[in-house]
Write a structure and sequence with these properties.
This protein has 208 residues and is mainly beta. It has no helices and 15 strands. Strands 11, 12, 13, 14 and 15 form a five-stranded antiparallel beta sheet that branches. A four-stranded antiparallel beta sheet has the order 3-4-5-6, with no helix packed on it. It has a four-stranded antiparallel beta sheet with strand order 7-8-9-10, with no helix packed on it.
Length: 208
């Protein structure tokens, strides 16, 4: 939901998604205008053994509506997979997206139709507390970019089979946007007790 000092109202996606789950909103600036990206999820269809989701974005209007809604044509962003955790950013007036952090750091430059114009693929330093996944927008940091990410660490020997952590990484601010450093230890770790709420994930923490 979008909150202003005088009111609060929901983010409005295209009406075809009225009955879908809208999750993981991330705000970013593109060409000086506020934009938002979200995950759109739905229940699995016949023949699928997972709940598919896609990523979309657009300009965020003052009333919460999304202008110029777009679903980039990369990866499995066509309901054939689970696309999530993308991080969009503006580089020299061109829209880019951090698509993946593991096993490689993959960044795409997108054209106006949402197709990839350029792919940058670089290695990621080893992370001791799980595979890095998308998180916050980039913050200027000594000529580079600093961003926070999350991991989902699975422990098969424990009743608490998964635990989410938050770490930080330093990324080059110019192509190919190489990851230079990754936290050696978590900055934060989830520590919530079990709940019987639907779809509950114990010890879950995500940075935005």
């Amino acid at each position: 939901r979008l909150v202003r000092s005088d009111m609060e109202f929901p983010i409005k996606l295209p009406s075809k998604y009225d009955k879908h789950s809208i999750e993981d909103g991330r705000l970013f600036l593109f060409n000086g205008k506020p934009h938002i990206s979200v995950t759109v999820a739905r229940s699995k269809l016949p023949g699928q053994n997972f709940d598919p989701c896609i990523q979309g974005y657009g300009e965020l209007a003052p009333d919460g509506s999304i202008l110029g809604w777009s679903e980039p044509r990369i990866g499995k962003n066509d309901w054939s997979g689970q696309e999530k955790n993308w991080v969009f950013f503006d580089y020299l007036g061109k829209l880019h997206v951090c698509y993946s952090h593991s096993p490689a750091h993959v960044v795409y430059e997108l054209d106006a139709s949402g197709r990839s114009r350029q792919e940058y693929r670089t290695a990621v330093p080893f992370c001791t507390f799980g595979d890095p996944r998308g998180g916050t927008q980039m913050i200027r940091y000594h000529g580079d970019w600093l961003k926070f990410f999350h991991t989902n660490q699975v422990n098969l020997k424990s009743d608490a089979r998964q635990n989410y952590h938050v770490g930080a990484m330093v990324m080059e601010s110019t192509p190919p946007f190489r990851i230079k450093r990754v936290s050696k230890q978590p900055i934060l770790s989830g520590n919530e007790l079990y709940s019987d709420a639907p779809r509950w994930k114990p010890k879950c923490i995500l940075p935005y």
